[in-house]
Write a structure and sequence with these properties.
By secondary structure, this protein is α+β, with helices and mostly antiparallel strands. The chain has 13 helices and 14 strands.
Length: 372
Amino acid sequence: MASGPEIALAGSNEDSSFPLTLLWFTPASEGHYARMNLGYKMMVNSIQGGMNEKGLFVDGNALGTQGWESDPGKKMLRGSLLDLLLARCATVEEVKEFFRTYIVPALDRARIPVMDRSGVSMVVEWYAGEVVFLETDLSYQVATNFVGSAYADREKPCWRYKRAIDILEAEENYSLETVRNALEASHQEGENSRTVYSFICDLKKGEIYVYNFYDFSSTVKFKLEEQVKKGSHEHYLGQLFPLRAPEYEKFLEEGPAKMVETGLNQSSQLAMIFFNQLKMEYPKAYGQDITINTLSQVARHLMDSNKPEVAVVFLVGNSNEFPQSARSHLELADAYQVLNQSSKAIDEYEKVLAIDPGHEQARQALEKLKDP
């Protein structure tokens, strides 16, 4: 977040393994400001950041559990936190009042960077048993995934924070290019989490600049005022940026399985809900269907982790999705063998041979099971 006499700019990198990245616009309604959100339309952590018509920017930094405690003197909060902030608040001061009024459990695992059109910024976080509004007298502020209050007079434990600070400290007058450079310097390309999109909000002009998959050479620009006149609408970033680098294509190939595995961190049921969401939305986002690899990859990881009973749940789902695939039944049969469920394995090997009578691996496995 960077400000000057004529500018108020806020930018963010979204680091994730989810492929269904979205940008959407919501017109004003009674008691609610018009706004732009980025993120996902999922069951959890849907809205990741955005800007409203009053020039308020909000975002979120994920954290580990912070020991947050509820305050019985405050009101219950219902709805998506970031969207409610954008819908109801116009300034940093109004955001402070929001947090003084409502119980916000999200502070147990996140901190909230905020900036308004005047150039004032802060980060809302939970520290030492209370809500803290971390402010600065500087013309810039950087927020990454650590509690700033805990490192007030200490070296910051984040290379991304340091890289962004180095760029901002080297500039006297900030510009869109400055913020873009800070985002580029602090993006991630990790195996399990990488920067899937970035955006910059010009809070004085009401403009949004969007970048896809850490490619800062290509941008799509929106003006919020013009977009909300069109009514509620959304864009998948995969459609806004059709030119795909090899790294992006690889991400699209691997992303669905990682998305299902994210759901699996909570339960098999949530993982399958994520898969069904992918099955509906992935063709809209990228013009291609989910492949047999998605659930197969998840199951393979589970088998490698010595969890065959969980792997079978996903392999059954895969065979239901792709009943004419010999591979889907073969993988399920092999898993049943690991679980010593011979009759079920025989049924699946026979399905393989019904589809592909010349499948030698299935034929040999079936012979061993029937005549051990």
